[in-house]
Design goal:
Distance between the termini of chain A: 41 Å
CATH superfamily of the largest domain in chain A: PurM-like C-terminal domain
Order of helices and strands of chain A: EEHHEHEEEHHHEHEHHEHEEE
Strand order of the largest sheet of chain A: 7-9-6-10-8-11-12
Shape of chain A: globular
Mean pLDDT of chain A: 92
CATH topology of the largest domain in chain A: Phosphoribosyl-aminoimidazole Synthetase, Chain A, domain 2
Oligomer: homodimer
Strand content of chain A: 25-35%
Helix content of chain A: 25-40%
Largest sheet of chain A: 7 strands, mixed
CATH class of the largest domain in chain A: Alpha Beta
Number of domains of chain A: 2
CATH architecture of the largest domain in chain A: Alpha-Beta Complex
Structural class of chain A: alpha+beta
Number of helices of chain A: 10
């Protein structure tokens, strides 16, 4: 098998050093869709979720198939919105929707399967992190956790800040260009997307690579810090234990670091350690990074 | 695009005359799963549904991905049953389950995506039927419609007959070997699987091929005839307007007919006509074949 079971994607070897790389994931309204998210946004997000996993492996999605569970109450206009959201999502990443099916269901279920052709030797797995490698991310963390709290608890915030936070939930973006450039660079030893949160993603790389992490520079988003201050939230909690964030978390060969950051904007957050522990260092204090992530908001939201 | 939109499968051209052929379809318990169907059988069926579409195009499935919506009430043992059903289904067709995801949902939703590598020139589309071609099927029709009626209305029937009918619903089989041999033969001008019923499948080929059909020999399954007799049902109705039957419906070049039936067991049911009408001939009388198919049994079954 070209890709170990449990990595972000699956792959079929088609010879000549090439792989068909595949990912499928489903969005279910009651667990993945806050009330404020439109059908168009939900459909677009279902695409982004799958594209993000290919991005983390450095593979361009060629096309997507969709399979949709449609609750009885939806009207023709609703279905069109879903179709438009799917197409918009696909076009943002230069892919397209190849086809799909729909069935009646109690929930709105949008299942996508994304496909791309990848080069076997360029594929970025979860399993190659080596002690001494630099740990980096493609962007700051905490906005979606803060944004979801803002939506669910209707937290007050200055309008521009609120918009940034809420947009991060409703209009997530996959880091495809970054993933492709990182794969091309040959500098990355392990990669994962952060859809289950930063802490969880680090634990996944740790498990697959048999190594640990010392994180000494948490990439907390400015807006998350501000919201935390306003509402007495813990910014570290927002940063580490959020989810649906779609940044890439990578480990990089130190000797290629300078070269790669000229091409991709990366934030250094720590380094890979031989000890298989995940440690956060703040000032002189250290804390364990727990293997927990995103908690679905199913209990706090009424059913659509 | 190598495969027209709306055909059974989608495809990505990967060069050298080869295609990645893909199909995704979802099984939803409340519409696709009679109460008597076990979780193991439902999962196996979700695989068969997708394999059947590849079979109709003459493409061997290499692997499947699954995406499962899991209702809260399911226990660990239930999930294992689903996993075993998926694996059994895949192994029956020499394919395997590559990976997948699960989410919480109100219904049990089993979405599969099946993939295979096909030769572009061998792919059997819906669109090539020519006037004069022979229309044929890989097996008799009516057993699943009769079987479902037996299950839903608890119809009485001799035990062996009942078992055959009910098994056709609970343990469907995809005609993969037949599809592969037919594609290899070069004799087939159009092909479709009959998951939406014989009448519907004929209408789909008619639409895609811009041709009609004269069906003069309905392939009614013996057991369907017998059940119809016992319970005053219409055997033609059972044969034409059932569904979930997974036989292949094909059109064949007349000059290659004798050669192809030496390799694949085919039942001749009529011929392709220039007039774009679908006519059933019984004795000297003719009847239109309507564009209707399978009606889901959602209204007659309680929710799982």
């Amino acid at each position: 098998m070209s890709v170990p079971f449990g990595d972000d994607v699956s792959a079929i070897d088609i010879g000549s050093g090439k792989l068909v790389v595949i990912k499928t994931d489903m969005l279910v309204d009651k667990t993945d869709m806050p009330l404020q998210m439109s059908l168009w946004q939900a459909a677009r997000k279902a695409v982004v979720m799958n594209v993000s996993d290919l991005a983390a492996k450095g593979v361009k999605p060629t096309a997507l198939l969709t399979s949709i569970g449609v609750p009885r109450g939806l009207r023709k206009r609703d279905i069109e919105q879903i179709g438009e959201g799917l197409n918009t999502g696909a076009r943002e990443y230069d892919a397209y929707i190849l086809g799909g099916d729909s069935s009646e269901a109690s929930d709105l279920v949008i299942s996508c399967a994304a496909f791309g052709i990848g080069e076997k030797k360029r594929l970025m797995l979860r399993s190659g992190a080596k002690p001494g490698d630099i740990v980096a991310v493609t962007g700051p963390f905490g906005k979606t956790a803060a944004g979801l709290k803002t939506l669910l608890q209707n937290l007050s915030a200055p309008i521009r800040m609120k918009k940034t936070l809420v947009d991060s939930v409703l209009m997530p973006r996959a880091r495809l260009n970054e993933g492709l450039t990182l794969a091309e660079s040959g500098a990355v030893t392990a990669s994962i997307d952060s859809s289950d949160g930063l802490a969880w993603s680090l634990h996944e790389i740790s498990k697959a690579s048999h190594a640990g992490f010392l994180i000494d520079s948490l990439p907390i988003a400015e807006e998350a810090k501000q919201l935390a201050k306003l509402h007495k939230l813990n910014p570290i909690e927002l940063c580490l234990y959020g989810g649906e964030e779609y940044e890439l978390v990578v480990t990089v060969k130190p000797r290629l670091w300078k070269k790669v950051v000229k091409k991709v904007s990366l934030i250094r957050i720590g380094r890979v350690t031989k000890e298989k522990t995940l440690i956060l260092k703040v000032g002189k204090k250290t804390f364990p990074i727990e293997a927990r992530g995103w908690e679905h908001f199913k209990t706090s939201l009424p059913k659509l």
